[in-house]
User: Which sequence fits this backbone?
């Protein structure tokens, strides 16, 4: 994953603003609790290995948010192409991620930076 220049709104890598890898992991755990309670998104996870998915999501987010790149999963497109993910499901997931971060008292300007990193991924995830 390509390294991005640090944003002037934060004094450290975004992943550090979120509490480092442990903070991202806690956020992902909260995210998946929210996703599984959402009738729009929960069906996408039926029969899935949630432990594996949360590990991949944690590693992926750490890399996307300027942390160490430990992600070794498939490409986003390959991982999602068979799921027929809709724009609505992508939007719900992004919204739940922001809610999980707000619950952890992440500063609004950092929330915006996270969204700026996630939004461009839509074309690799939405397949329906």
Assistant:
């Amino acid at each position: 994953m390509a390294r991005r220049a640090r944003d002037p709104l934060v004094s450290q890598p975004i992943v550090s603003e979120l509490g480092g890898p442990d903070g991202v992991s806690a956020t992902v755990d909260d995210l998946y609790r929210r996703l599984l309670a959402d009738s729009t998104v929960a069906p996408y996870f039926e029969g899935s290995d949630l432990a594996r998915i949360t590990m991949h999501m944690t590693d992926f987010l750490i890399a996307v948010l300027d942390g160490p790149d430990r992600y070794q999963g498939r490409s986003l497109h390959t991982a999602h192409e068979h799921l027929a993910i809709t724009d609505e499901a992508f939007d719900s997931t992004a919204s739940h991620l922001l809610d999980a971060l707000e619950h952890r008292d992440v500063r609004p300007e950092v929330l915006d930076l996270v969204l700026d990193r996630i939004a461009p991924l839509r074309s690799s995830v939405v397949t329906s």
